[in-house]
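U., I forgot to send this yesterday:
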Amino acid sequence: MSVFRFNILNIWPKLGRIIFRKKWKELIGIREDQDNVLIPIIKTRLEKVMKQEVQDDAVVAYVDSLANLKLPEEGNRKLSDEEMVSLCGEFLNGGTDTTSNTLQWIMANLVKYPHVQEKLYQEIVSVVGDGGKLVEMVVKEEELQRMPYLKAVVLEGLRLHPPGHFVLPHSVSKEVELDGYLIPKNAVVAEMGRDGEVWKDPLEFRAERFLSGNGGEEGFDITCSREIKMMPFGAGRRMCPGYTLALLHLEYFVANLVFYLEWRPAVGNYEVDLSEKQEFTVGMKNPLLVSISRRVKPSP
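Result:
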């Protein structure tokens, strides 16, 4: 769902509710649906905590932190249900929509460039075996650390298709020098991942650029603490706090999807279209259509 279609309501907040009554009603309906889903979950969790039904060594949930939060500038009041729903909604959206969209972009490139997919599959097999009759076998988290090409594929996907491409763009209104860097007027920061002065053949999907043995740079600093060549998760103090979890999810799902299934373009004259669609996160303008076949054979 595109959030941009509701932007008109922000221009004239009071008048917009009257002029665009249907749109306002739709937005309220979406919010009510969100409340109906999240409030029961939040209250169930907090009731368990109050009744001490949660083990002392259990992981502290995000909701627990929100429940204990106090606002000193407002008399130490606690968050309302509506505020907790908003924060939980942002937390879920930031950790699911961005990851699922990035996963789709990576798989789209693996379908478009089958030689990359085959090379990745061979690396996975070299680490975990070919599966054979072990239908239940999955690529485990600890095995991902021995797959440098997998990590390179994920980084290349993030370079070309950062999830916040339309959310994070900033441009400077005038030429400015910052920490020794000269930033030209109207320079768009989000475009650096496709900058030809930074990356060779920037529009090509070439994972080898992140492998040290191929003239690349294995161990690339995604946090931008050493240098800034791309920033799919932002940079500095406001960098995405869940970037390590996002990378783990992407590596895990890409590895298992390629290990179990061979991905090809859909039958007919279908070609993978990498055109972008502007929403809250970057989505594919035309959804990915594929034909998949199982690699790991079931046991007799």
